[in-house]
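Changelog-adjacent note: as of this version, every example in the card shows the full chain rather than a window. The one below runs 159 residues end to end.
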Amino acid sequence: MNHTRSTIVALGIITALALMASAVRAEIVIATVGPMKGPFAGLGDQMKQGAELAVADLNAKGGVLGQKVKLIVGDDACNPEVAVTVAKFVVNQGASFVAGHFCSAASIAASDIYNKDNILLISPASTHPLLTDRGLENVYRVSGRDDRQGIIAGNMLAD
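Full-length structure tokens:
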């Protein structure tokens, strides 16, 4: 996803969250969570940089409905147990939106925490069908599912 599209998506989500908020806060807390260290750190760094740019753009334009956006960055190491711990931290920090987690197992484990606290989760890369097949109303993905990718690629090659 390019920078412009990421900013537009982030702006839309944050605006929607701000409109849904019943109490006015001094800032809107969002998070990005992924593998910030270890073998997948390059992917986590891309997530972090994209989120930082989107937040900087929003705040430079006055924030969302006059409220500044605060970014929390979490490192789940693509590990489900660590992801649950990070998700609890994000909840305790008052986040209303999470862009993450990168790995499917981490996303699935953390999504239960976010669901319980009604926090919007949009994963940029988790492909396991179980992430969305459980029907959690606040959990979304922007990448294709594992069980559809082969069919789609095969059809494209055949065409």
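Structural remarks: The chain has one domain: 3-158.
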